[in-house]
Amino acid sequence: MLAIGLDLGGHGVKSGIVRLGTLEVNHYEDLRYNAAKSNRAIAKSDIPRAVRLQAVIESIQRLIRVEPTVGAIGLASTGIIDSAAGIVLDDQAPDYVGTDWLSELRQNFGNEFYFHVENDAKCAVWGEYVTWNNRPGERIEPPSSLVQLTIGSGIGAGVVLNGQILSGANYVAGEFGSLPFRSCGSKDSVTIESISAAPGLLRNGKCDSLVRLNELYSVGNKSAVSAVALGAEALGHGLAAIINILGPAAVIFSGGVVDLVPSYKSLIIEQAKPYCEPAALKAVKFVEGSLGRFAGLVGAGNLALSARRSVG
Predict the structure, then answer these.
(1) Can you identify the CATH homologous superfamily of domain 137-289?
(2) Low pLDDT (below 70) residues in the chain
């Protein structure tokens, strides 16, 4: 059974055809918003609602033309998503809040397809979870509890607990980027996301791209080193809290910052370790994601396919 998977992010919409429980992605495309044709980090609040809608519609139309047999469409979106209703409950972009994706998709594509909408970090962790047995390289026992940190234009944490996505009473579980953080010697608190995601790293590192930030960090540039260290410190404290509270068997790191600033992951882990309970730290494995840029769309497509199968 095939589905269209879409991942609506800070730069544009990633889309492709996915098959239930596999790593396979066909007819992949990364449709960039006009404002994000470069490698520059774009704040999510800068993307108008109409631009997001049009990009998603164009991506779906393209994939229906090349694979007309798809039966489900899954969308991974930024923000806090009521996955039952397909509505954006909250987001950094005020005009995106309240977007009724199910109504928009049905209006454009009718009732021929089964639609499912979920938060992008939750989709990413679900993609890794359902394809775990197909991971390349070292064989690691499939975990019953899994956390994935997505570090890009924002900070997200998707959680699978006892084989189910953890959503919480109001769909906000995993939104730990909003937690406060205060570094040593500072009187003021900031959110983890404001200094650990791409826009904050670039602002504090005084550069305009993650590639450039990594170059400057590699040669010991003071601003770049300071920005990366501060971001890792904040994320490390947040990660320790997640490990202590949830006791996951594995933590996956993903997102553009991790891909383009390779040292970031190890720095975050080292910052987290002193604050983890020894038993929790001993039980957890820190692993690379197997899906890379496909994680969100694979998870979204699999969620849509599973939901369709459950209703017959």
Answers:
(1) ATPase, nucleotide binding domain (3.30.420.40)
(2) 35-45, 137-139, 311-312
Length of the chain equals 312
Class of domain 2-125+293-310 as given by CATH? alpha beta
What pLDDT does residue 86 have? 96
Q: How far apart are CA 229 and CA 221, in angstroms?
A: 12
Are the beta carbons of 304 and 73 closer than 8 angstroms?
A: yes
Give the contacts of 3 (CB within 8 A, at least 6 positions apart): 17, 18, 19, 20, 70, 71, 72, 73, 74, 301, 302, 304, 305
Query: Given this model, what pLDDT does residue 39 score?
Result: 46
Q: Which amino acid is at 132?
A: W
Model pLDDT, residue 281:
96
User: For residue 312, what pLDDT is reported?
Assistant: 59
Per-residue pLDDT of 138-162, as tens digits, reads: 667 778 899 999 898 888 899 999 9
Q: Which segments of the chain belong to CATH 3.30.420.40?
A: 2-125+293-310, 137-289
**pTM of the predicted protein model:** 0.87
The encoded tokens of residue 43 equal 């704040």
Token pair of 36 as six digits: 């994000």
Cα separation of the two ends of the chain:
13
265: which residues sit within 8 A by CB, 6+ positions away? 253, 258, 286
